[in-house]
TrEMBL record:
Keywords: Membrane, Transmembrane, Transmembrane helix
Coiled-coil regions, chain positions: none
Domain of life of the native organism: Eukaryota
Species of the source: Carpinus fangiana
Name of the featured protein: F-box protein
InterPro entries assigned to the protein according to its UniProt record, in alphabetical order: Chloroplast_duf
Compositional bias per record (Basic and acidic residues), positions renumbered to this chain: 252-261
Ranges of compositional bias, category Polar residues: 242-251
Keyword Iron-sulfur: no
Region (Disordered): 242-261
Amino acid sequence: MASTLRLSSSSCSRQINAVINVPKLPQVIPYFSVPKIPTRKLVEELKIRDGFTGIVPVEKINVISTTPIHDKSPNSDVVAATTKLYAILEAVADRVEMHANIGKQRENWNTLLLNSINMITLTAATMAGAAAIGGAGMPLLALKLSSSLLYSAATGMLLVMNKIQPSQLAEEQRNGTRLFKQLQTQIQTMLALGNPTEEDVKEVMKKVLAVDKAYPLPLLGAMLDKFPAKFEPSVWWPSNQQLQKKNNSSEGKQRAEKKNGWNEEMEVEMREIIEVVKTKDIEDYERLGNLVLKINKILAIAGPLLTGIAAVGSAFVGNGSWAAVVAVAAGALGSAVSAFEHGSQVGMVFEMYRNCAGFFRLLQESIEATFEERDLEKRENGELFEMNVALKLGRSLSQLRELARKSASSRMDGTAIDEFASKLF
């Protein structure tokens, strides 16, 4: 009996143990562990985000302080040049934005001033006509005075508008935007290729300043002359005189030794292209530019002159029939002249011709400067140079070579070539 009780108690304890034997829970401590103290690297990163970008690790202070200044790494010049190019790139991007914004503003000037002047002129002509039809005493005086004042205001606004030529100003800013975008792309390409030098930095700086001078932003004291004595192409690139002097000092014997994509046939081809550009494209744009300049000068004088005559004629309305005719007719002609000058944007056309002539002048100087380099290895690759010239002229390589052959044959025959170099302009 006792043995039976012991067996039963032991079996019960086993059951109880089996019931209350709960499996172990997974450790939760790793998921709720206490955060570690930030390391020095994290602290320095936070400081950099706050603007402290010049942090020097403590363990490197002694090394930096004990290193002589003249013992620089070989890449220090490249790093310095790269840093300067990035700074110039930021300035160029800012200039792109400024030229674009100011160009839109000056384009609005042209539209708003033109509409305002035409409305003022037509209103003054209507008042002068109404005063001539009928009226006496104070009504006639009021109409005459209002018409004369409106004509005078239109004359003053036309003088200012013709002086600054808003359409030409807008075209200048569009060209400045385009050229600075080109320069921005060139700097980005230079940085992508790597290993820029101090000479690259100086050359980019010269280009930036040349574009600033060719297309200035302010009006007072820096505005380009809108009515020069003679048509001159735009110049937005630095002078190549120093480059030519350096190239002239190179040795000519290396021409036969190193090719770099150049041969005598290609040089002859490029020289023929230069002749076509000078005798056809540049000459044609100079002729058109001088013609548009003369037309713009005549219109700029005629508009204010006609509105001024109308202002004087409106003051004598009522004293004779011819005064009213002069006031109304001169006012209508002045409105038509200003609409033609600024509505068709004659100043913009003149600036466009200046820019196109400058484009061909730059192409000519770049080819001539390339030929001045006697060392063929220092030149741009001949095949790449030929492709760039063809693209700038809107031609394929076969069309470019065909143009050179036509130019050579026409020179031998003593006849003028009947084709322009460019197919773009």
